[in-house]
Design a protein that fits this description.
The chain is mostly helical. The protein has one domain. The model has no long low-confidence stretch (mean pLDDT 89). It has helices spanning 2-20, 23-58.
C-alpha cells in the first residue's frame, strides 16, 4: 500500500508542478509516479499468484 501512496503523492506533485509551469519537475514526478505504480502492480500480481498457488497446495 505504501507504493501506491507514494505513486499518488508523486502524481499530485506532477499535476501541481505542471499547473504552475514547472515542466521539468512535473515530468520527473510523473515518471516516478508511473514507475512506482507499475512496481505496485507487479508486486500485487505476484502476491495474488502466490496466494492462489498456496491455496491449491493446501486444499
Amino acid at each position: 500500500m505504501t507504493l501506491l501512496k507514494w505513486a499518488l503523492i508523486c502524481f499530485v506533485i506532477s499535476l501541481i508542478a505542471g499547473g504552475l509551469g514547472f515542466t521539468g519537475i512535473a515530468s520527473g514526478a510523473g515518471s516516478l509516479a508511473r514507475i512506482l505504480f507499475g512496481l505496485f502492480l507487479v508486486v500485487a500480481i505476484v502476491i495474488v499468484v502466490v496466494a492462489f498457488a498456496v491455496g491449491q497446495a493446501v486444499f
